[in-house]
Each structure stands twice: as structure tokens, then as C-alpha cells.
Amino acid sequence: ITQFLMIYEATKGRVGDVLKWGDEVEYMIVARDDVNKTARLSLRAPEVIRILQQDEHATPEGSTVEVLWRPEYANWMVEGTPGVPYRYYTADLVLVEQNMALRRREIEKLMDPEELVLSIPAFPRLGCGVHTKPP
After folding, report:
1. Span 118-128, pLDDT tens digits
2. Do residues 69 and 52 touch, judged by C-beta distance below 8 A?
3. What is the tens place of the pLDDT at every residue in 64-97?
């Protein structure tokens, strides 16, 4: 509460500011092996990110794209965020789900047939034996 009060005191005279906000979703790339009934973390994130960022890098300076892709914690993770911040209008709330669905479609298109993307806090087998592909 003290921090909030200090920030409020420092900024209470500002006018014309627009609240901008966003979200981020982390995707884990998982490789399934249906024959051996295993799932491992696929280490293809750098390759996938390079492909996903092609639109962003081809966009002229000052232009925007619908989605930004960034590396996350490890080589099996990809972070997706909206291309521009949302605004303070209630109409922007509808855009959140639409943009999240767009991001999922974009990354899923790049998965190999045995791969899928998960958005969960931690991979259940992380650190247990061979848990990545390749090991």
C-alpha cells in the first residue's frame, strides 16, 4: 500500500495519460512419442521463433504487427504478446481473446506432426531422466 500511495502522490497531477496494458502467454513445445507413450520438451523454440518473427522483421519501421514473439526461459519455450498494447476501452477486452487465439493458431501451424504446444506453469516431467528432445 505504501508503494501505491507514493506513486499516487508523485503522479496525481498528470493529465491526459492513457492506460495501456497487455498480456503474455508462454508456450511449451512438447514432442509426443505415441509408440513409447512418452512426452518430452522439444528444443525447437529458437527455430520456431525465427520463423514467427519474420513478419515482424519484414514490417517497415513505425508499423505494427498483430503479434510479437520472443524467447522465454528455455529452448522449449516461446512467448507471445499482442503487437500493440490494449487501451482502456471496454471494447479492447474482446481483442484479448481474439489475439490469444491468433497466437495459438500461428504457433500451432509450425509444429511437427508429433508436437503440440502447452501453456502450463511447469512441464510435469521436467528434470526427470531424459525429458527433452533431443536429450
Report:
1. 999 999 999 99
2. yes
3. 999 999 999 999 999 999 999 999 889 999 999 9
For the chain, give the secondary structure using H, E and C: CHHHHHHHHHHCCCCCCCCCECCCEEEEEEEEECCCCEEEEECCHHHHHHHHCHHHHHCCCCCCCCEEEEECCCCCEEEEEECCCECCCCCHHHHHHHHHHHHHHHHHCCCCCCEEEECCCCCCCCCCCCCEECC
State pTM to two decimals: 0.86
Cell of 51: 520463423
Which three cell numbers, joined as nine digits, stand for 112? Answer: 511437427
Grid cell locating 50: 525465427
Percentage above 70 pLDDT, the chain: 100
The sign of the CA dihedral 71, 40, 111, 82 is: negative
Which of 64-73's residues contact partners 24+ apart within 8 Å by CB, and which partners?
Answer: 66/99, 66/102, 67/99, 67/102, 67/103, 67/106, 71/45, 71/46, 72/26, 72/45, 73/26
